[in-house]
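INTERNAL TRANSFER SHEET
From: sequence group
To: structure group
Subject: Probable transcriptional regulatory protein SAMN02745152_01452

Please process the attached sequence and return the structure record in the designated field. Keep the field labels unchanged so the import script can parse them.
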Amino acid sequence: MSGHSKWATIKHAKGIADAKRGKLFTKFIKEISIAARMGGGDPNSNPRLRTVIIKARAANMPKDNIERAIKKGTGEDGATSYEELVYEGYAPGGVAVLVEVLTDNHNRAAADVRNIFTKSGGNLGTSGSVSRMFQRKGTIELDAEKVNEDEVMETALEAGADDIVNEDGVITVTTAPDAFSAVADALAAKGFETLSADVGMVPDAYTAVDKDTAAKVQKLIDRLEDNDDVQNVYHTAEYPEDFEME
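Return from structure group:
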């Protein structure tokens, strides 16, 4: 078993930054809309849409919101054209940062992201400078106190999961992107409640930072995630165990 508990830590930190539920749902609406526009409104025949819906449901997004977002994407309820962009850069301490953006204004998004990096002591890099340090994987987290680890492991592995780790009270199931939906469905069918479910970029290696640097990195991450055009932020920082989020 590889040590994906660091990924769980990053996910939990992101959850704190995305605590404003309305902003989180707005991000899901954009992601659902573009998935529906590109591949149609039926999640059974649109894997990308299905994956986003699983993520949204794991965050307790209401069914009505999801359905409206699908209609918006398919043009039934008015459509906004979004562009998908990826920015790569470095935070203080040499921490690699990957930023996924969905925007209706390329110039605004580029200027905003660059400004956030600069003001936070980081800098943008060239295309490919950071993305090569990450792999796209599915991760599903469960409360270890509320589920049976052996049952989770058996169910997840049979459905195609790559790895299961139990650490710090969280069971993290890792999958290949194309196996994510099948594993999530199998766990749901067994009645296992998930803390989160996502397909995202996982670092191949991490950069250990001290408390002061961790605070600077997190400030950059928070500013990025607070931007309306930013969908996801991934980074390679490994925070000290006693570092507390503000």
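Handover comment: The radius of gyration is 18 Å. The mean pLDDT is 86.
Transfer complete.
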